[in-house]
Amino acid sequence: PEPVLMRTILAKGVPMGLQMLVVSVSALAMIGFVNRYGTDSVAAYGAANQLWTYVQMPAMAVGAAVSAMAAQNIGAGRWDRVGRITRAGVIMNCLLTGALVSAILLAERPLLSLFLGSGGEALPLAIHMNLVVAWSWILFGISIVLASTVRANGAAVGPLVILFVALLPVRLGFAGALQPALGADAIWWSFPAGSIASLLLTIAFYKHGGWRAERLLPAMPPVEAEKRTLA
To answer: Minimal CA–CA distance to 73: which of 152, 144, 154, 150?
Structure first.
């Protein structure tokens, strides 16, 4: 392995891996909050979370496609295409995720009944939290698309910091600070709060973060570049 490539892989790969750690820590802390409100809340949250997992899939897929296409055009020096790719990804995310959220909200009772049955207190709780949370995944999906474009040019630390702030200080802080006033609703509303924070921070970084000036690999002399191409 070439040292230059290994340094690049570690410098860009480690922050991307840490993002999954941030997501996992946030999820564990959120479960801790939910557990305080009894078994019905735990069951309702588990069922609603199953639906939310599917809602996030289109944004993940679109983000991966946007990242690949943006990286190819950045490498080709076609920055004029990068913005168009990002806009297309944002629109596609809004259409796909929005359609899925709408379908789930229209059929939430029968869908949630698959996990919770038709009776008991857990089903109304799951319907309530789904109404509060589901729409916010559209905003979070936009953040994913924008962050995918940024990472395509090797800027991995900025999206990591934004995710950390949105999920830990904002989402968990909102849930913890407002529970005395709002009760369990503070937990559910913390999801939109985190999504809004992530969207605003990601837009600011996309527009003003300086990620366009970064280079995924250090510049090579023309002769060396030609040798690698021929090899």
So the answer is: 152
Cα distance between the two ends of the chain: 15
Contacting residues for 198 by C-beta, under 8 A, at least 6 apart: 139, 140, 143, 162, 163, 166, 167
Long-range contacts of 76-80 (CB under 8 A, 24+ apart): 79/212
Q: Residue 60: which of 136, 141, 135 has the closest Cα?
A: 141
Contact between residue 45 and residue 32 where contact means Cβ atoms under 8 Å apart: no
Q: Please state, as a whole number, how many other Cβ atoms lie within 10 Å of the Cβ of residue 221.
A: 8
CA atoms of 185 and 175, how far apart (whole Å): 8
- Which run of H or of E encompasses 95? helix 79-106
CA 216 to chain centroid, in Å, comes to: 22
Burial class from Cβ neighbours inside 10 Å (0-12, 13-18, 19+) for residue 227 reads exposed
Supply the pTM of this predicted model: 0.87
- The pLDDT tens digits of the residues spanning 52-93 come to 999 999 999 999 999 999 999 998 889 999 999 999 999 999
pLDDT tens sequence across 176-197: 999 999 999 999 999 999 999 9
Name, in order, each residue with C-beta under 8 angstroms of 120's C-beta and a sequence gap of 6 or more. Answer: 40
Rounded CA separation 71/123 (Å): 44
